[in-house]
Write a structure and sequence with these properties.
With 140 residues, this protein is mostly helical. Helix content is 66%, strand content 0%. It is flat. It comes from Timema shepardi.
Amino acid sequence: MPMFAKKYFVQLTLAVFNFGPKCGHIVKFQLILKMLAPQLLSAARRTLPIILKRNIGICAPALQKASDPIQQLFIDKVKEYRQKSSALGGKLVDTNPEIEKELASELDKLAKQYGGGEGVDMTQFPNFKFTEPQLDPINQ
């Protein structure tokens, strides 16, 4: 709890208990709002601009067009690769037999390392089968 909140919480508690049981809950609630509203507003005035600046600073580059020519070139190349890849059905773009052979050997090596083998499709999520364990009866 922040320091200003502790100080005003103590003042608020004393003020509410000074009214005693004669005072209704609505009056106590209104008193709480009157006492805490200025402190909450001042805290919001201090922290809200910082939070908004951070969020805008993070989101702004994604919302704007790239201002740097190198960034724009990178974005154009990524879009171009995505179009070529989708035209080939999601396969690698601009490959030759040597690259495809290297890819296949790397995938085989990974399949052997992580429990795959002949005929096992390592691109699919594995199917888990859990069986209930056999428990001995308690009343023996």
